[in-house]
């Protein structure tokens, strides 16, 4: 006798009714008996029960309330406002009223948040439009009025006020070039000659020679500088990803720094130069960036730092401390008590002209005035930063102050910083910056006792 592996199915002539109980949201209940209702009829009954107007129903007060709400979470409505399932006891009147109040409060808070956010976005948009409009007006003023008449207008009060507000990015490079000047009389041809020498040196250093060629000390230093450039370029504004290997400005920056080491072998390449050159590359053509770069580094302050003239650097620090004590006596005393000397934080600020320490857009605005006012503004900016953060710094010890000043916050408020810079007085006993600096150079013993080793 053959036996099937599975139980034999029993055939029925009539379809079997579903006997299993149905499932609802809050429990298992038996299926309703009786004929199935038309879905449209169920929807109409539901709307009538909940006070919603159908084609023939008048508009209910609840509907009016919901129409006036711009925001209403439907899932929350179902849980709070609607009745419980039929298999559960109905809500007490007090509980239903409490839930309705909670729901209305929640909707009101959500609407308030949305309104506040919308107002915030509207204000941001208005501020952005105003800024763009002011920049457009400034660009027109610089291009049509100031740049064509540079020599006559560059020292006027109107231009100085515009300068302080920040130079528009589209004309920034032109203004920088004119303000820095070209006292070295560097031409585009000279740049290409220096670049050719640098490329030749790179080829020589890349090809191992059997016997080293006889070279003077300056040339040897220049070759080591060229190798150091390759390491530093990838560290220059790494968050921008445009100066790294394969980036659009990698070769341009490499060329300018290499050409400069051949132009000034006595200086060579020093760490920090890459940031200055990178800022110029972002605002000027390559040859013009090289000209501005060479002239900027030829200024007395930059030359003192990049040639590591310790005596002159110490004089600059002493002059800075004179104005530090004049403007911020309490913070100066706190620094002195903790033996925090300016060289700890000023070196990085001066070496890179704040391009590494401040956000790039703010650093460019500092450069705007630096190109106009010279080295004095670099130290004035330093005092402005100390003034901006003096309340924070006075609560710190040596370690935390040094860490804070060598790594400033990522978001430095531009307008507040320039307000503090403007409040700095660069006079001490009726002497200006240059007079104080000259007096210290003639008599180094008059410098600040804090800096004496």
UniProtKB/TrEMBL annotation:
InterPro entries: Rab-GAP-TBC_dom, Rab-GAP_TBC_sf, Rab_GAP_TBC_domain. One of its GO terms (cellular component) is cytoplasmic vesicle. Residues 12-22, 30-50 have a biased composition (Basic and acidic residues). It comes from the Eukaryota. Residues 1-66 are annotated as: Disordered. The keyword Signal does not apply. GO terms for biological process: vesicle-mediated transport. Residues 1-11 have a biased composition (Basic residues). This is TBC1 domain family member 14.
